[in-house]
Design goal:
This protein is an all-beta fold. The protein has no helices and 11 strands.
Length: 179
Amino acid sequence: MSTLKVNKIIPTAGVPTGGGGGIVQTVFNENNSIQTFSFNGNSFSPQTVCSATISPTSSSSKILIYCSAGVFASSTTNQYYEWSLHLKRGSTLIGGNTQSGAFLGTNVMYSGINAPECAATGTFFYLDSPGTDQATTYNLCLQGGETRTYGVCRSQYTSNSNNFTNSSGTSITLMEVSA
């Protein structure tokens, strides 16, 4: 049996501009615990719903991040309760739409609305250049749009007695991409 160990994979034509080479390592974490947060519609304070930590093999590596969360607005079947997903490297928001003059907050990676029965699932990818070979934690965060309780990992109903009320959990996948 043979083992091939590498810390960098470069395509034969070189690394494309804005991209990277091959995947060197992958880290995955999921959180299927029901979490709820009370938001104020006049303030911006994204709350962490899932995290993962990766230690890049090189400070030139990039991190390809995939996030997913099933989100609900509590105790309502109305669809006009907005929410957004955000990404933090440590405690710093990164990526996403930064047009904060057009809406409350910044760095929106995904924006959705309440689903009447099931939780609405938001997903996104982001390619980050952290510039370090030290352990780096990424946090998937939720922001509610109105003054009410929002959460993850269940529908707006508090029990399963309301027919088929499903919800996805939360997950974050980190892939080190050689540069």
